[in-house]
Amino acid sequence: MAWNEPGNNNDQDPWGKKRPNNNNDLDKLLKQASEKFGGIFGGGKGNGKGSSGGNASFIIGLLVLVAIYLFKSAYTVDEKQNAIVLTLGKHTRTDTAGLHFAFPPIQQVYLIDVESIKDVEVEGLMLTKDDNVATVKVKVQYRVNDPLDYKFNVVDPVETLKHATEAALRQVIGHTLLQDARTDKKEDVRKNVENELKSILKPYNAGIEIFRLNLIGNVDVPPSVKPAFDDAIKAEEDQRAYLEQGQAYRSKQIPLAEGQAQQLIQQANAYRARVVEKAAGEVARFEKLLPEYTAAPVVTRQRLYIETIESVLSKTSKVMLDVEGGNNMTYIPLDSIMKRSKTSNTDNSNQKQQ
């Protein structure tokens, strides 16, 4: 007969050993738990066996539910996070790293990363101060510095940051020449956009801290108009080169002209001084001659005439002979004679060389 057939001793296992009465032990444990907690749930020692077992099962189930609830209520906050805890919709505390408890549905928990540096990119077409269309692309690095403001002051903080960045870009690029934004004032544009972005975000209290704003690539025109724009830039560069050449020529010629002018001024001053001194000497000489002229005017006048004629004729190659008592004046062309003499001397020297 099999060990588990009807009529067999069910208190023994297949090896003939007596099996423990687990049902009785479980009933004892339930009964003890029922006696301990019966007063709380309306039970007592006078209840029957069925009533005691039902209370015990209810208590165990309740304890299991409580344990599950507590397990579900526990949460861990990472070192990079802060936890915002709301109780009945009102902020009651902010938890930092570690194990914490929140009891739903009364309490809600929002985990916010407050340490990681994040970034967003914004790109768009902007109108510059000189009415050129430019493409601008920037990257904004930020982190959350106030988790409560970040979560509840704006609906979408990241989207708000993007719109604010685009507004700051349009403001700065709209007051900047395209050539300046593409070349030597690129760093100024970056700083101005960053400062403008911070000033725009400040009234929102979005809980965002801007670390740095970087320009990606160059501020440039759209590809469809780039060839024409490059031609215009080349023309401007040529114009600038010609202006620089003109400035260099001007810088060279002005000192020369100033030197020549100074030289002419000095020559004029020297000539003036010489003429003035000469005139002063003549005046002094005539003042000395005045007594002699007063004493013998005819003789003095004749002498002055002869001296003047002598000084004039000594500077010419022409000779005039005036014979006293005659009406004819003889002219001796000494200048022609001297030219012919020089020519003949030159021919003779050439013949000797040959």
UniProtKB/TrEMBL annotation:
Keywords: Hydrolase, Membrane, Protease, Transmembrane, Transmembrane helix. Its main location: membrane. Residues 1-25 are annotated as: Disordered. It is a single-pass membrane protein. One of its GO terms (biological process) is proteolysis. HflC and HflK could encode or regulate a protease. This is Protein HflK. It comes from Kangiella profundi. The gene is hflK.
